[in-house]
Specification:
By secondary structure, the chain is α+β, with helices and mostly antiparallel strands. Helix content is about 15%, strand content about 50%. The chain has a single domain (about 5-119), classed as Roll (Thiol Ester Dehydrase, Chain A), CATH 3.10.129. The chain has helices spanning about 30-35, 45-60; strands at about 5-15, 20-25, 65-75, 85-95, 95-105, 110-119.
């Protein structure tokens, strides 16, 4: 899990199948020493893991990604320049599983958009 180490939750609201949160990135986390020295960038796998952790919160159970129908990395996140990131996750139960739409952004800058299926 990345929560509590790679990022901390500073604000969070949840209503039904939707969660909105603001996370503070830990710019001193060891992952940035290798990704990349002198120019830290949040790895895409960490963005996806963050979304997964919020899906688990909404679903109140462990979930696993089954299908990513859309995963767009639109801008890089430098934790020194953008220490706070807004996370929006919407989950809807479906016969195939849990349909998820998520966005990582800050103000008008979108970092990642995701649509997919979790089980």
């Amino acid at each position: 899990m990345l929560a509590g180490n790679f990022y901390t939750i500073t604000e969070q609201t949840q209503e039904g199948g939707q969660i909105n949160a603001t996370i503070a990135l830990n710019a001193e986390h060891p992952i940035f020493g290798g990704h990349f020295p002198e120019q830290p960038v949040v790895p895409g796998v960490c963005m996806m893991q963050t979304i997964t952790e919020f899906v688990r919160t909404v679903a109140s159970r462990k979930v696993m990604l089954q299908k990513a129908s859309q995963m767009k990395f639109m801008n890089m996140i430098d934790p020194r320049q953008t220490p706070l990131v807004d996370v929006q996750v919407t989950c809807k139960d479906d016969e195939a599983g849990l349909k998820v739409t998520a966005v990582l952004k800050r103000e008008d800058k979108i970092f990642m958009k995701f649509q997919g299926l979790f089980k």
